[in-house]
Design goal:
By secondary structure, this protein is mainly beta. Among the domains are: 117 residues, Carboxypeptidase-like, regulatory domain (Immunoglobulin-like, Sandwich), CATH 2.60.40; 107 residues, TonB-dependent receptor, plug domain (Ferric Hydroxamate Uptake Protein, Chain A, domain 1), CATH 2.170.130. Helix content is 6%, strand content 47%. The protein has eight helices and 58 strands. The strands form eleven sheets. It has a 22-stranded antiparallel barrel. A seven-stranded mixed β-sheet has the order 27-30-33-40-41-45-44, with no helix packed on it. The radius of gyration is 31 Å and the shape is globular.
Length: 1033
């Protein structure tokens, strides 16, 4: 007891200073004699190469034992009792977070004997409704894979990478709705919700993806939960030296695909080109690129069965050398070099200082920096920029700590801690000490103008800029410190109960200094802008003061406001949960749980005008109560077939990005001007932020649009947290010792969302008389509260179409057949039939090509966006909907040392919808999916590795991976935008149907119709290869 108290008080401060959950497994069961009578006092011991020391338990009066807090791995379990034959069960495979039921019968013996049983392993967790997939190191290393741990997540049913939603979609959710853990530390970005840290695959021991059915201890996810466990040491020393190499020569990368581009020399020309043919002599003279990676790892022990270590370093270097010019490919050419440096590594200590106590601490590093940048291949970049000096540093690391103590057969106390930090520092090139310019269109359309005939040096193509850098980034520090304490207690009352109670604390911190110290001028030659509600530029009436014969421009960081962000803010959040796993008559398990969270979004400004708004969004525990229930039926009582069902409510944990845009973090005003003088160098020539005259020059100021006015006083007092419900039903059948078949039916329904619902409002400064058109945003639940019409207590005029509730419904059927790695082979195949439909994709916007902007997407930025032009609410398949998805994998190790691994995928194409650029918003005039779908795509990757042994202890291997070995070229996208320049429609024209009748003719008249509408724009990428070498000892 004294030892435990000492350990507790040593560990507790660390746990309450660090992070999250590192799920581990357990083996439990009952021991009976050959008459079926329970045997108390049986010594049960488990050993594994993954377990430091051994786990032990003593059966109670009912013959029950529990081995808790076990890392995943292959176990040997021994049962001993005087007067009975010693029983040894070998090759028991325990996966991450799994509970295995291992019931045994012991036989009486007059003399000491030992019975060894190999096989008869339990395969199915009959106490859990969790569905997803676990991938072990052995599985991962024999399959084609990328260089990050998430590269094989695509194989999990219902999970795949989708750029349309900004990352991995899990059961229809967007990329910002997953939770990512590394050794228990939450490495999800606190800013936008995506994965914020990488772990190189060679440093990974196991990856678990949970798609549905998880218990109350997990929160904050409306998508999936991804857990990564890094490698540990052992009772023997082992290590690897691994090297990878790839380049872009034709023997390692196939010929580039044709694609659609906008001509860099004429923005009105769209053309199909092939970079290999256009620039590189069919691919023979490509830019010189190579990538090298070397991994050093060593694992072992300081004290056998007491203290293990694992250390790994993984430096990566890649380089691109390119010949570029600044004269539209006419020369002269110079060499430019881009260099990328990655410093990855991990350190892990695992200890068992005394019986019942297990400790672990780990550190994972991802430091990245780059030096040098490449001008555009078209030769249209600025020659005065110091391309060779560009660069930034990106520190990124995490630490994790855990302690598990099982004092008896029925009590487990767990402490978890972690700290994750990332930053952007060491900017190599600061912005010029003067105004900078950017051309959205080319001024070559005026090359015959008298001014430009005399000043040909001022003619440039579209996207030219005199400085790619205009923001001074001093720091972008994001960090999360979190901790978790939970207690599990087992008791018997009308069956077995496993009670778990837990408390979590999470501290979030952002410290940012990133701004534009000088004016940034954006020039649209020959174009018209309608952002202010009236035309500014060439499309304005010639007698209008806002007629610009050369177009228009706007300025960021002008006299009305600086541009950028400065904030240093913190948020401290809490959660607690209570759950019970109740097993009745060893057949039925009922999981009941509830989770509650308290969180707030802090203010991101120190402006004294907003001093009273310390926590503009603040949810208390009673506002985020999430119930969970699951039922599992072990049909035959032998863990060979289970039926299960679960229901739960899952609340999103808010990301801090909403404070950047809504609560004072980022300043973004645009001052619009009619361009009357072609000499753009006069614009903001003084370089001073407050010099209005210089910024106007000989042109005409039209007004200012404030994109981000603070919304402190526009937070709905009845705001509710975002959440969704989940209903999952399924079955899982053990077909053999290593093979299982599973079925899952799932429905996930978005209950509520939080968004900024927008409107436009003119504000006139009484002192200067300047007009500012502000985008007024109400932070609310769309379809409720402030978003309703005035007559219903809301803020929007009754004549507008009412704000619809966000809808996202995901229905899916998953079928999966999986054969675990044994007898030198493994295989799996799964099929998903699904539909995700509605009008809202989630925290990442599929309607904005995957923009990660939690709670501030563009779905509700104006009252008409959620409708088509006929006044019908948007509905139908979402842009990331794929009806069919087939995934397969397999590997085989031949007796002569060759390993062959294959992954293969087949998927439906995405739906396509016509997009209309109107009032500076993209809308769907004909509702969703009016243009059909992209074609079905099939592709496969292959991995080959030959290994030979040296004196049994040492091994050497060489490997080759080929991605897209099928050389798939299927079309992956099409142009669906009707126009490139926004048309304008007044509210009345939208409401009375004039827009619906005339939008196509308006596009032709004023909207700059897209010349490539309906054309395909990209194909599936070319095949590529990677070589590898490995030495093991």
């Amino acid at each position: 007891m004294k030892k435990w108290l000492i350990a507790f008080f040593l560990v507790m401060p660390f746990a309450l200073t660090f992070a999250q959950i590192m799920p581990e497994g357990k083996i439990e069961g009952r021991v009976v004699d050959d008459q079926g009578n329970p045997l108390p006092g049986v010594v049960v011991e488990a050993t594994s190469p993954k377990l430091v020391g051994k786990a032990s338990s003593l059966t109670d009066a009912s013959g029950t034992y529990r081995l808790m807090a076990l890392p995943s791995g292959l176990y040997e379990v021994t049962f001993s009792l005087p007067g009975f034959k010693k029983l040894v069960r070998k090759d028991i495979l325990l996966e991450l977070s799994q509970t295995l039921i291992l019931n045994v019968t012991m036989q009486m013996a007059a003399v000491e004997e030992e019975v060894i049983v190999v096989g008869q392993r339990p395969l199915i967790d009959v106490k859990s409704t969790v569905k997803g997939q676990v991938m072990t190191r052995e599985t991962i290393m024999s399959l084609p894979r990328g260089r990050t741990f998430d590269s094989l997540i695509n194989l999990v049913p219902g999970v795949h990478y989708e750029s349309k939603v900004g990352g991995f979609t899990t059961d229809g959710a967007s990329g910002a709705e997953n939770i990512w853990h590394v050794d228990g530390t939450d490495v999800t970005s606190i800013h936008v919700g995506v994965r914020a840290q990488n772990v190189v695959l060679e440093l990974v021991d196991e990856v678990k993806v949970t798609a549905s059915g998880y218990n109350a201890e997990f929160g904050g996810s409306m998508g999936g939960v991804i857990n990564v466990i890094t490698r540990s040491g052992g009772n023997s020393f082992h290590g690897d030296i691994i090297a990878y190499y790839e380049n872009n020569k034709l023997w390692m990368r196939g010929k580039a695909r044709d694609y659609l581009r906008q001509s860099p020399y004429d923005v009105d020309v769209y053309e199909y080109v092939n970079d290999d043919d256009l620039y590189f002599d069919g691919g023979k003279k490509r830019d010189s690129y190579y990538r090298t990676e070397i991994t050093f790892s060593l694992g072992g022990y300081f004290l056998k069965d007491r203290l293990w270590f694992f250390l790994a370093l993984d430096p990566i270097y890649d380089q691109t050398k390119a010949l570029r010019d600044f004269n539209s490919r006419q020369g002269p050419f110079s060499e430019f070099i881009n260099k990328d440096y990655y410093y990855n590594g991990s350190l892990k200590l695992t200890a068992a200082p005394w019986k019942g106590l297990r400790l672990s601490a780990s550190f994972v590093n991802n430091f990245y920096r780059y030096r040098g940048a490449l001008p555009t291949i078209s030769g249209t970049s600025t020659a005065t920029y110091e391309w060779s000096k560009e660069g930034y540093d990106y520190p990124n690391w995490s630490t994790a700590f855990m302690a598990d103590y099982s004092r008896s057969n029925n009590l487990l106390i767990s402490l978890r801690g972690g700290w994750h930090q990332q930053n952007i520092t060491n900017q190599q090139i600061k912005p010029p000490s003067a105004s900078t310019y950017y051309f959205y269109t080319s001024n070559y359309i005026y090359q015959n103008d008298a001014f430009f005939q005399q000043h040909t040096n001022l003619l440039h193509y579209a996207y030219w800029t005199n400085s790619p850098i205009y923001l001074e980034t001093k720091k972008r520090l994001y960090e999360k410190i979190s901790s978790n304490l939970d207690i599990t207690y087992y008791m018997s009352w009308m069956g077995e109960h496993a009670w778990k109670a837990g408390l979590q604390f999470i501290s979030l911190h952002e410290d940012v200094l990133d701004y534009s110290p000088y004016p940034r001028v954006y020039i649209y030659w020959g174009r018209t802008n309608y952002s202010l509600g009236f035309p500014v530029g060439v499309g304005a009436p010639k007698d209008s003061p806002y007629y610009g014969p050369y177009g228009y421009y706007y300025i960021r960081s002008g006299w009305t406001s600086p541009y950028g962000g400065v904030w240093n803010a913190r948020s401290n959040n809490w959660a607690f949960y209570l759950q019970d796993s109740w097993t009745i008559k060893d057949r039925v398990t009922v999981n009941l749980g509830v989770r509650s969270e308290r969180e707030y979004i802090p203010s991101f400004t120190d402006d004294p005008h907003y001093a009273q708004y310390k926590k503009p969004i603040d949810f208390n525990f009673d506002e985020k109560i999430a119930p969970r229930i699951g039922v599992i039926y072990d049909v035959f009582g032998d863990s060979s077939l289970k039926l299960f069902g679960s229901y739960g409510v899952y609340y999103d944990v808010m990301k801090l990005y909403i404070a950047v845009l809504s609560f004072g973090g980022w300043k973004h005003k645009r001052d619009f001007y009619a361009l009357k003088d072609p000499d753009f160098t006069k614009i903001a020539s003084s370089g001073l932020l407050n010099d209005r005259a210089s910024q106007e020059a000989n042109n005409t100021y039209a007004g200012t649009l404030d994109y981000l006015p603070p919304s402190f006083d526009r937070v709905d007092p009845d705001l509710k947290p975002a959440c969704q419900s989940e209903l999952s039903l399924g079955a899982e059948k053990k077909l053999s010792e290593n093979m299982s078949l599973s079925l899952r039916l799932v429905h996930k329904h978005l209950i509520r969302a939080i968004e900024d619902v927008g409107a436009l409002e003119w504000v006139v400064d009484p002192q200067t008389g300047s007009k500012t058109l502000e985008e007024i945003f109400y932070i609310t639940n769309p379809g409720y509260g402030y978003s309703r019409p005035v007559s219903q207590g809301g803020k929007f005029a009754d004549e507008y179409w009412p704000c619809p509730k966000p809808k996202r419904d995901y229905y899916a059927l998953n079928l999966s057949l999986e054969k675990k790695l044994s007898d030198n082979w493994q295989a799996g195949i799964n099929y998903t039939l699904s539909r995700v439909a509605g009008n809202y994709s989630g925290l990442s916007s599929a309607d904005e090509d995957g923009r990660n902007a939690p709670n501030v997407t563009l779905y509700y930025d104006d009252w008409f966006i959620a409708y088509d032009v006929y006044g019908r609410v948007l509905k139908g398949p979402m842009p990331h909907d794929r009806t069919h998805y087939i995934k397969a994998y397999g590997s085989y190790v031949f007796p002569f040392g060759l390993t062959v691994g294959v992954t293969a995928y087949g998927r439906s194409g995405l739906p396509l919808s016509t997009r209309l650029y109107m009032n500076n918003r993209y809308i769907y005039p004909e509702n969703r999916a009016d243009l059909g779908r992209l074609p079905f795509t099939f592709w496969a990757d292959i991995f080959l590795e030959y290994t030979f042994r040296i004196a049994e202890k040492y091994g050497a291997s060489v490997n080759l991976q080929i991605n897209n070995v099928t050389n798939t070229k299927t079309i992956q996208n099409k142009v669906t935008e009707l126009n490139r320049t926004s048309i304008w429609a007044d509210d009345e024209e939208i409401l009375n149907g004039i827009l619906a009748k005339n939008y196509r003719s308006w596009v032709q008249a004023q909207g700059d119709p897209h010349p490539a509408f309906g054309w395909w724009s990209s194909r599936f990428g070319a095949w590529s290869a990677r070589l590898g070498l490995k030495l093991s000892f």
